[in-house]
Design brief:
By secondary structure, the chain is mainly alpha-helical. It has a single domain, classed as Orthogonal Bundle (Lysozyme), CATH 1.10.530. Helices cover 51% and strands 2% of the residues. It contains twelve helices and three strands; from the N terminus they run ααααααααβββαααα. A three-stranded antiparallel sheet has the order 1-3-2. Helix 4 crosses helix 7. The longest helix is centred in the middle third of the chain and has 35 residues. The chain is globular, with a radius of gyration of 19 Å. The N and C termini lie far apart (44 Å).
Length: 297
């Protein structure tokens, strides 16, 4: 009985420290447990081509990264002594990348919706674009794309609330101070499985071959995180909740979607509570206000 009370007390202390911004993170111990690059649902393509991608950016994203280079340098979060100042610097640095990715996803949604609503035959260019998008989001390839196929794609091509992005980044990267954030620009603990694709966790189990993916910059990490939530089988409940909110014309919020993250960490519900606490304590919904969709506050 006493041991149970001690365990509960310890969990509460850790939760408080994480929410307040003290640099404690499970990633700092190189002990990350993410579901990565799974296969998904009845339409999933389970071919080898998906394994080759290993979570890489889409061809269109790679072109975008080259034509729109990041202009800002990551702050040295560890040397910002004031906790409040460190947190605000962290939020202000990452939020624009989340907004940027959401704007691109909304532009893709607009194009998909136009294809759904038109009576014209799909052009070769549109077919190629839809095929690439379906492959990237791990959906079966089609010779012809029906209206239903396009609607299924809309289920995955959508925004992730900036409040949720910031809360998970803070939790996974110890407010930008973890080894993976500072050495690999990885703010979400994403894994990869090609030798040399990332940083080897110090506490990796014998026989394991995963690495913690390295990114060119923080924006690529944010984009990959949003792509993961939009395509991975583990987060289909998150996507279903988002689709329901859209159908009802309600705001797409982090406090709703966070409940679809129970598989992001082996800690399950305790992890969800941490992210929920980070959003609420830091009032992270304030960063949603400039989201490009007025129904996504």
């Amino acid at each position: 009985m006493n041991n149970k009370r001690l365990d509960t007390s310890f969990s509460i202390i850790i939760l408080i420290l994480v929410i307040l911004g003290i640099a404690i993170s499970h990633t700092s111990q190189d002990n990350i447990n993410l579901v990565q690059d799974d296969v998904d649902e009845s339409q999933e393509n389970v071919g080898d081509e998906l394994q080759e991608s290993d979570g890489d950016a889409s061809p269109y994203e790679k072109i975008y990264f080259k034509s729109h280079p990041v202009q800002t340098q990551a702050p040295d979060f560890l040397n910002i002594a004031n906790i409040k100042a460190r947190k605000e610097a962290f939020f202000n640095y990452l939020a624009p990348f989340a907004h940027e990715k959401n704007r691109l996803n909304l532009a893709d949604r607009k194009r998909i919706t136009a294809l759904i609503n038109t009576s014209k035959k799909m052009s070769a260019e549109d077919k190629e674009w839809v095929s690439a998008l379906r492959k990237f989001h791990k959906l079966k390839q089609r010779e012809e794309h029906s209206k239903t196929d396009l609607k299924d794609l809309l289920h995955r091509v959508d925004i992730i609330p900036v409040s949720l992005v910031l809360a998970q980044a803070a939790n996974e990267s110890a407010w930008g101070t973890s080894r993976f954030a500072t050495e690999g620009n990885n703010f979400f603990g994403q894994w990869c499985f090609r030798k040399g694709c990332g940083l080897v966790p110090a506490s990796r189990n014998d026989g394991a071959d995963h690495e913690v993916r390295k990114f060119h910059d923080a924006r690529e990490s944010v984009f990959a995180y949003i792509d993961n939530l939009n395509s991975n089988a583990a987060y289909k409940e998150l996507r279903a909740a988002r689709a329901t909110l859209r159908q009802k014309g309600k705001a797409i919020t982090g406090l709703v979607l966070v409940h679809g993250l129970e598989h992001y960490s082996e800690r399950g519900d305790a992890y969800v509570e941490e992210i929920e606490g980070l959003i609420s304590y830091n009032k992270l919904w304030r960063f949603n206000k400039s989201q490009p969709n007025p129904k996504a506050q």
